[in-house]
# Entry
Amino acid sequence: MKKLLLLILILSVTLSSCSAIENLSKTESEKINEYLNSLLVALEADDKNSVRELFSKVVIDRQENFEQDLEDLLKYFEGEADEYTEDVSCQTSGALGGGEKKVLIKAFYDIKTTKYTYYISLEVCTCDEAEPDNKGITCLNVIKKENILNKSEGMYNYAVDGIDRTSLKEGISVDVNGYYRKIPNSSYDTSKIADIYLNNILGAIENDDEFYVRYWFSHINPFEFFNSTEKSMALLEYFDGTCEPYKGETTVDIEIETIELPMDDPDYKEGGYTRKIGTVSYDIITLRNEIYRFTMRICFDDELDKKNRGIISLYVLKADESTDFNLPYCGDGLFAPGINIGVENLIK
# Structure
């Protein structure tokens, strides 16, 4: 196996106390890369024991079907890794509970073997003062690129700030589908970008994946502050049914905001930075002929911070016999950040 040269894109660091790590150190980056390389060597050798030894003992004990999942992984991964595609992101978080530190690192890889190209999502615990045996791989998701389900395939473009991953689940997940989050290319027409966001939200709902519901939101108003998990779970319960990807006509109302920074700010620019915000409404018909009304407020582009691109506000309302479809759905018109379910239309 050729030595993999890994390019790490540091995404974020989440800290809970003064003793938590301030940034993703080179040492931490190297640790997860060493786990990846050891994993690939063991998979190529069909060495079950070596793969098992890389995993957290705590995770193994919690998994009822770990040994079967391990068998499935060895059968699924074929060939020798001979090429690495440089599209990796790495994320670390430090969390303290009762003064005890825990560090998790996540990384996402495209691995080309002599037979297939695989997408690998990896989470490693490098430190857990509360449970020392938790050190090791905690999550491993492996899927062949050709098997990835993406309703908007071909409508994405990689971005420096983009995150590309499938869902992370504790233990081993083999050929479990998820959705790529590739930031839509801002050169696309805004209607096309809006449809991309909508179809990925619908896909996440259909997959019963609350993580990917949340994942399409902008960082302008951090969604985590708005009970994101509870609200995304509530949306999965509220939207009952499946539907085809939306392919209708879309009209987006665009606003251009100007962001002025103080002159002493290192990022100061005369004239300021522009942020493109748009509002769009949809009526979505499920296969049961039920209609759900969606309205989204989206950040299409932000010159100051590209990570702000994404959904700012999402309103969803199930239509009934009293619904007037001649009136576009706008919720309460306040565009509260995050997910807003069952809000009646302000326009009457």
